[in-house]
Amino acid sequence: MRVLVCGVGYRFLRDHAVGVHITDTLATQASNGIEFEDLGYHPVGFTQNLQDRPPYDRIVFVGAVERGRDPATVTTIKYDHVLPPDEEIQERVGDSVTGSISLDNLVIVAEAFKALPEDVWIVEIEPADETWGDGFSPEIEAKLPEIMETVWSLTKL
Amino acid sequence: MCFKNLPIEFDAAGNATLKPGSANPYSYIETPAPTPIEDDPARMREMFARNGAVRRVDFDPVTRVAGALAFHTVVDLENRQVMETASMATLFRGYEIILKGRDPRDAIFISSRACGVCGGVHATASALACEMAFGISPPPMGVVARNLLLSVEYLYDHPIHLSLLAGPDFSEPAVRETNPEIWERAQNTRTTGRKMHGYEFMSELMTDLTPLTGKLYLEGLYYTRLAREAYVLIGGKYPHPQTVVPGGVSTTIDPSDLNEIMLRVIKYFDYGRKTAAIWDDIAGFFYEVNPKYRDIGTRPKSMIEPGQWDDPYAYDGTFANCDDWGRRRWAPPGVIVDGEMVTTSLQMLNAGVEEFVEHAFYEEWTGDGQSQRFATDPSGNPLSPYHPWNKETIPKPTATSWKEKYSWSTAPRWDRQAMETGAYSRIYAAALTGGADFRDSPYLNSTGHSMQINLPKATLPNDPIEWHVPECWGAFERNRARAYCILYTAAICYDNLLLAYDLLRKGGPDAKMSTPYKIPKDHQIGVGLWGAGRGYLTHHMEIDNGVIENYQILTPSTWMASPKDPFGNPGPYEEAVLATPLLENYEKPEDFKGIDVLRAIRSFDPCMPCTTHLHMDDRTITREIISCACGSDGPHEH
To answer: Which of B159, B319, B432, B594 is the most exposed place for a label (fewest CB within 10 A)?
Structure first.
C-alpha cells in the first residue's frame, strides 16, 4: 500500500501555508507506505515526478483554497476526475510552468497528463488571513488539530 | 557620450559629471497624457457613428503569460488599427517593503519568491548585491557554479515561452480560427528547415504546436524537465534554490554532478538547432504570406541588457570594476538605442536608470526631485533622484484611470527612453559587441552584426548556426531570437561545464565553492546586475547596522509592462500594440479575437508578479487567479 500526502501552498502567506504545515508536521509520523511531500512547487514538475515513481494507491492533497466559504471551513472531497475544457487546462499548464502554485492547478494538470491514481482525496481549507507572514489566523489555528486528524485518517486505506 | 536626455556630460578623461547651471538638474515638466477616447465626447460620437467598427477590447487577464497582466485597447476594426493602449500590472509586489529591516542574506531567499520561473536569478542578483555591500567575491568555482545554475535556468525558461506560451499562437487551431486562408496556404507550403526539424509542410509544424496534444508542445514540457533536473544538482531546489549565498554557492560539486548536468545539457544541442529552424520557418512563412506581419509588435530597437555569466577570473564583486568584469561576461551588458549600441558600461547603464510613477499606483518619493539619498554612485557618477538606489516604494492604490493612474508597474526609463529587454536583447547586445571586445569562447563568435554558435555535433547535422541582427523588429523576431538563445545558452553552459571539470582537476583555492564573510555593521550599498532569462534584472540594496535599509527590485516586465511615462511616452507593450496592424480575418466586429495583439504582447514573454498577495490598509489589492474546477462526488464541510 502506498499513500502520498501532498501539502500545497505558499510558506510566507499566513493561512495559505496551512497545507505545507500539515505535511511538515505529519512527516514525522511517516512510515512504510505513507509519504508526505511539500508541493510548493509547480504542478508540471510534480506530474513529471509522479510519472517516474511506482504508482500510489491513494493521493491526498491538502491546502488552502479561497472559495467564499466561512473562514476555516474544511472541505473533504473525493476527486471525480472530471476535467475542465481543454482551453482551461492549457491556461493552467501555462500558470503552472510560470510558477502559480494552487491546489486546483495541481490536481487538474496532474489529471490531464494521467498521472493520478483512481483514489484521490482533496482536503481544502478556507483561508481567513492571506497577508504576508508566518503563523495562522486564530480561526485556522483553532482548526489545526481537526485538519491534522482529517488528513491522517485519509492515510488509512 | 551616451546620454541625450539626462543632465550628464563627460569630461576629457571620460568621467561623468552633472551638466552645470541647474539647481535641480533632474527636474522635468510633465507632459499631460492624451485624453482617453472614452473621456472624449466628440470622439465617442464619431465611434458610435461608425457602427461598432471602433470598439474597446480589453484582454483581462492576458492568458498564457506569467502572472497577472491586463491590457486595454481601443481598436478600429474597419481600418485595422489599434487606437489606444494601456498596460496594467494588476498585482502589487511588496518585496521591497517585506525586506526592510531584515538580514541582507534573507533577501536571497525571499526575493527568490518573486517569481516562479526566475527564482534562481533573483536569488543570484541578491547575492551579487550582498557581495558588493560586503566587499567579497566568490572563488572561481563559485562563479562557475552560478553560471551553470543560471544557464540551465534559462534552458528551462526559453522552451516554456516558445512551446507553451507563444507557440500556441501559431498553432493549427489558432491559425485555422483567426486566418483560415493562412492555414490553407500552410498545407501547400514546404518548410525550409526540414533537415533540422523534420516537418515537410508548414501545416504539419503548426499542428504540432497545438496545446496539450502537439508534439512540439509536449517536447517543450519535456525540456523544462531536463533543465530542472540539471538545476537541482547544484541548486538543491527549483525554482527557489537553497544553495545561493553571498560569496558563492553553499554546496559541493564532484565530477559525477557535472556528468549528470552534461548528460542533460548536450540534449539541448539538437533541441536548440531544431527550435531555431522551427522559428525561422514560422517567421519566414508569415512574412511571405503578408509582409505586414513584420509590423506585429514592432517598436524601436531600443533595449537594455545588464549581461550575465561572469568570467570567474574577472568578477570581483566591486562597483569600481564593474565595467571591466561586465564586459568579460559571456553575455556582455549593453544599451541599444534605435539599433545602435550606445554603451557597454555597467556604470553608465546603472546611472541612466530612473523609475517614474505618474501613472502607477505609488506615491512620488522625491518631493519633485528635491531630495535623494545618493547624489552619486560609489564611483562618483551622478544619480537621479528617481534612480533605484534613491527610490522608495510607497503604494497608493486609487481608482483606475487611463489618463491618471492605471498600473502597479512603475515606468522605468533609461536616459528617459522606454526600453525592452529579454533573451533577445542578450544575444542582440552580444552580437553587436563584436570582435576583440567579445570574450574568447570556442563556441561563440560575435561578428558585430551576428552571433555564430559552434557547438560539437550531436545527432543532427552540424551545419553552421548564426543569428543575424534583424532588419525589422517585432514579435516574430523576438521569438526567433529567443529560439536561437537556446543554443547560445547551451554553448555557455557547455563552456562552463568544461571550466568546472578543469577547476576540479586542478583543485586548490580556485576550486573552492565560496568565500567566508562577515556582514558589515556600517552603511554600505550594493547592486546585483544580472539579467534574468526574460531580460534585465537588478537588485539595489542599502544596508546599515547589519540590516536592510532599502531594497529595490527592477524586473524585465517592469520595464516592458510599464505604463506611460511623464514625458508622454508609452511603455513598450503599449507602443508595440499601437503599431500592430490587425491582420486577423474577421467579417464582423463580433468575430474579432485579437490574435495579433496577443502575439505582440506574448512575444515579450511577460512575467508579471504572481506570488504575492498583500493587503494595504482596508483596500484589497489582490486578485484571485484560481477558480474552482475540481470535480467532486459531494463535498463534506465541517
So the answer is: B319
